[in-house]
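On clarity, I found the account of how folds are encoded harder to follow than it need be. For illustration, here is how one protein appears when written out as sequence plus structure tokens:

:::
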Amino acid sequence: MRALIQRVSSASVSVDGKVCGKCEEGLLIFLGVGNSDTENEIKLLADKLLKLRIFHDGEGKMNRSITDIGGQALIISQFTLYADYSHGNRPNFLMAAKPEIANEYYEKFCDYMAQNLKSVGRGIFGAEMHVELANEGPVTILVDTDNFGKKTAL
């Protein structure tokens, strides 16, 4: 499971010109579900994001989590996080989970996050969406459960 997260002061998502999800200070989370993911990854990823210390403390250091600041989240399903562009110039998405599984895991991930945050906005699975955000920092991080427990630094 992959999440591209952005620290935001605000974000919103619209479908057909109508806002369907939004958040204030917190995280914009683009969530991708891979074809080898299991339900186990839902809690692993959510817990990592809830504890990730990327918000400023009183001294301006990134030392606080979204739960520490009482932040909100906007979560948008994003199968393109599993794009394979290694052959040619047109990506394939064979590593992304089938829509019915991806939607189930997306909803469960959103529900779990909603149990731990004061507000969680959602996109509409499979819809053509328009996303607006105010990225703070900017801070943008790719989190992949395949890398949990592995060193990723060079």
Observations:
- The longest helix spans residues 99-116.
- Helices lie at 40-51, 99-116.
- The mean pLDDT is 95.
